[in-house]
Amino acid sequence: MTLPPHLNRRDLDWHPPALAPAYKTTRARSPQHPLVYIPQTAGDLSGPTFGHGDISSTDADLLTNFAAPGQSAIGQRILLTGRVLDEDGRPVPNTLVEIWQANAGGRYRHKNDSYLAPLDDNFGGCGRMLSAADGRYAFKTILPAPYPWPNGPNSWRPAHIHFSVFGHAFAQRLITQCYFEGDPLIGHCPIAKAIPSSDAVDRLIARLDLDGSSPFDMLAYTFDIVLRGRQATVFENRKEGT
Amino acid sequence: MNVFKLKETPSQTAGPYVHIGLMPQYCGVATPPQLGAGSCPPEVEITGTVWDGDGVPVRDVLIECWQANAAGDFSDGGHAQWQRIASDFDTGVWRLQTVKPAATTDTAPHVLLWIVARGINMGLHTRVYFGDDDHACDATLTHVPQERRSTLIARPSSHDPNLYHFDIRLQGDGETVFFDV
Ligand SMILES: [Fe+3]
After folding, report:
1. ipTM of this model?
2. Whether residue A160 lies in the annotated active site
3. Ordered alpha helix ranges (H), B43-163
């Protein structure tokens, strides 16, 4: 059987380690054995694919996708866009991008969230779309608020939107979180700080894109996502002059 | 042409409310419809619990399942061989109903699992094999220390040949093997 080109090995030191003691829940949920290396097989190198029949074009508009007709979610309206790329900088087209988030008060529409901020009748908090041919995605939503969580005596999550991305192989599967430029809580967050490198944390911060904003409507933020690339097409960076 | 080698976006935990985004109906978000709800008439059922290092069921876990079909092929069209399941919010028990994947020349029948939850910083890749199969041909299992292979094998029920039990232990005694793949 011919397999597709293998994916680059994951740089496990770049990602947060399983055990990050300041993030309390990891203490009992982190494996103690190191991950066992296995060569990639057909299952790892393939994955589910999705088409426009699987989702609705309205799924990407969180301002209205849960709202009553003529209504809209409460909060600061934002356009959140970016590209899904691979490690060689090539677009990853036609891949499913899913997001979920708290509302403008910091409350999730989930039976296990009992934070005292109120639910917004017109906000569900779930969005999804397929990336375009150039890897681009765009969601209309509201800026979520920070919220408290039972980690330490006074722990607050920075404002964030959760992202799930597929790529074209099950081994590319990625879930992450997008933070927002200028949020002072990022530096206090044990989940963000579980990532060893500050450069890596920086990659999770969406940037204000004033030029991309819609005047009198929405501020824009950009957030690019990079998935593992394929080994057969790795391009080496050449030093200048060589 | 400048070609930059980018670093993969760092992983972050899916958190306790992952169901809103990936299984909205499961947590009471009415729209949009759920993807990965299972579309084939099931032949086999695997149930189990994900346990943490304190022996407590992980009640907020979400598992993605990807498998070959009954001919041993991973399809390159659609998502019929992919499912999302979640543990029961009260008991922690999850249930996967599916068709049994076929063996191939160098793999025994197996389902690939990807496990995310609050407290898991990067989704965990593992596999479930079926206890009544011969696993000698499986190339992946040869990379797993012999004494830990049993953590990847579902136990068939003694009274129903289509029912299997598979517990996942995140930490400690009998810790499940998770892969760097
Ligand atoms: Fe969150």
Report:
1. 0.95
2. yes
3. none
